[in-house]
Amino acid sequence: MGTFVLAAEEFTPPGQGLFNYPPIFGDVTKPMVLAVLSLVIVAAVFTLGTRKLAIVPGKGQFALESFYNIPRNSMARDQIGSADFKRFIPLILGLFSFILVNNLFAIVPVIQFPTMSRIGFPIALALFVYVFYHYAGFKKHGFAGYIKHAALPPGVPMFIAPLIIVIEIAQKFLVQPLSLALRVFAAMFAGHLIIALTAVAAEFMLFAGGALVVPAPFVFVAGIAFTFLEALIQVIQAYVFALLAAVYIGAAIAEDH
């Protein structure tokens, strides 16, 4: 028991410093490099994968088309509508692909860092989507028409209209972009921290000796399980971000509230 207590006192769990990287050169850090790398990967995959399209697709084309159909059909078409969705496919596809690659970096050996765990990247993407869907709304309805469209659902009784207007304006102009950024950031931050904690704890227990050696393999296995779970969450968060972008665009250009 004395060995356990002594070891526990010496153990330092990973913290916020896990996400802080010194500049590689100038002011360029590892997360910045990963963001650029993800753009290169996405561009290369779609460029190379669409060079020789065939009516009867091969395995590579079939896989790429299957991936493309996710943002095209279940996001853009279903949420924006069959009349308007095609012009928004590149945006939804780009968001889904970019965020997915950056999230999956967390489980790639050597890289092992989710870019979206740095809050600046989700905020930048959320602000881009925010500007885009409001611009689409203003373009479709006009300035006054879009404000009315966004602020007051049809059929609301006049005696509660002021309260509804405040709630709707706050939701569409403040809450939506904030929640869009925080959702993916929090998931990537927490997931990366948990996986790092299990890895560091398993190593510490293994080399600490004494009673701590016994649970070390179980902590290591838990870390592997968390890694698979985190991979699923990484895909889901990329999907949810792109899906919500489509939902907001669809709501902004819809004829009805």
Automatic annotation (TrEMBL):
The chain crosses the membrane at residues 32-49, 88-113, 119-138, 150-174, 180-200, 207-229, 235-254. It is found in: Cell membrane; Membrane. It comes from the Bacteria. It is a multi-pass membrane protein. SUPFAM superfamilies: F1F0 ATP synthase subunit A. InterPro entries: ATP_syn_F0_a_bact/chloroplast, ATP_synth_F0_asu, F0_ATP_A_sf. Keywords: ATP synthesis, Cell membrane, CF(0), Hydrogen ion transport, Ion transport, Membrane, Transmembrane, Transmembrane helix, Transport. HAMAP family: ATP_synth_a_bact. PANTHER family: ATP SYNTHASE SUBUNIT A, CHLOROPLASTIC. Belongs to the ATPase A chain family. Key component of the proton channel; it plays a direct role in the translocation of protons across the membrane. This is ATP synthase subunit a. The gene is atpB.
